[in-house]
Amino acid sequence: MRLSSLLLIAFGLIGVVLASFALLVASQSLGELRDVRRAAIVSEIETTAVSATVAMSLERSVVQVALAFPEPIPTDFRNLVAAQRRMADSGLQDAIEMAGAATFLPTAETYVAQTRASLARVATLRREIARLISVPIAARDPARSYDLPLELKAEVVKLKNATDLLRNRVGVSTQVAGALQAVQLRAWEVREFGGRARTYFAIATLNQARIKDVDLGLLAIDNTRTEEAWTSLKNSVRAVADMPDALQQDIDAAEALYFGRYVPAIAEIEQASRATPAGEVPAYPMAFGDFFTFSNQALGAMEALSQAAGGSLTSYWEGREQATLAEAIASCLFAVASLAGLAGIYILLHIRVVVHLRATTRILT
Q: For all residues of the chain together, what is the average pLDDT?
């Protein structure tokens, strides 16, 4: 075989290796860009769904208190219930539409089906609730007044569990994303379990009555779960680099309000209830209106924290998408430039070297 041919073959092999490497790098960058884009979409769906579920949780809490009112619920309570319903329904409908459009998500169909089924059951419960809160307590069915909030709570839990179908469904994750997601979910849990416990204190202060022994046991469980969720949240963000400073400030502020001020306040109410003999009126340190406003502030801080974490997670993936897009473009340009450069060198080598080698070979032979 001629030397010129061997030279071209050797260069061709080197060129194939280098071109394959360039194409591999470009392909990996494009694959990462696809996964990051999908992560951003799924994060937005999950954040929307979780926020809507929090709104329905507050609706459930207000409804349970409303069913303890001796008269039809006041206008401000009725407006609060209506506002939370609009937020919940609008958010969940948005999540359903976004999930339906996410054709890459293998669990989208199941999420949509479960969420729609829960919303249908919630609609039935709401119609029954609307009838009961429109009449005095003497005209309400006591059994249904007790069961309806529990049934609505069960649907809230199902809706929250449905969001598991949106979590960890793409092939990319990072420590920061995991920490932000943990804050979003654990703050939701504090809001949910804290809201359940709040209901018993609200009803007690509303009716100026002792908290029932069975309810004391239930709220103790809920309060313990809020503490466990908060401990998990704090552990999730500990020693995680690149956590947003603003979110850390939100965590500190929510902790100071909820665990620093609100938890001691409900402990005083519980202590006053336990110290009151049966048949007597408890001397609660806070009236119903003041307590409900204060509890809304404390629970609202956790709701806002969950939403802020979800927003930070969405922003994080959007930032990653922009960075990954830039990397993918650079990789593709590198691949194109590599192929063009190799082609140019090959042509130059053929003209300047191979042709001369062949001419020299002919002369020598």
A: 85
Determine the Cα angle at 49 with ends 148 and 303, to 5°: 75
The answer, as to whether pTM is greater than 0.70, is: yes
**327, 29 in Cβ contact below 8 A?**
yes
114-134 per-residue burial string, b: 16 or more CB within 10 A, e: under 16: bbeebbeebeebbeebeebbe
Nearest CA-CA partner of 262 in 205, 323, 314, 197: 197
pLDDT at 246: 92
Residue in 204, 194, 217, 113 with CA at minimum distance from that of residue 159: 113
Cα 258 to Cα 251: distance, rounded to the nearest angstrom: 10
Looking at residue 114, its amino acid is: Q
CA distances from 135 to 139, 140, 151, 281, 303 (A): 6, 7, 20, 26, 31
Q: Comparing C-alpha atoms, which of 280, 284, 192, 174 is closest to residue 229?
A: 192
Which amino acid, residue 155? Answer: E
Q: List, in sequence order, the alpha helices (H) in 208-244.
A: 213-237
Q: Any idea what the Cα angle at residue 229 is, between residues 153 and 90, rounded to 5°?
A: 45
**Beta carbons within 8 Å of 259's beta carbon, 6+ residues apart:** 230
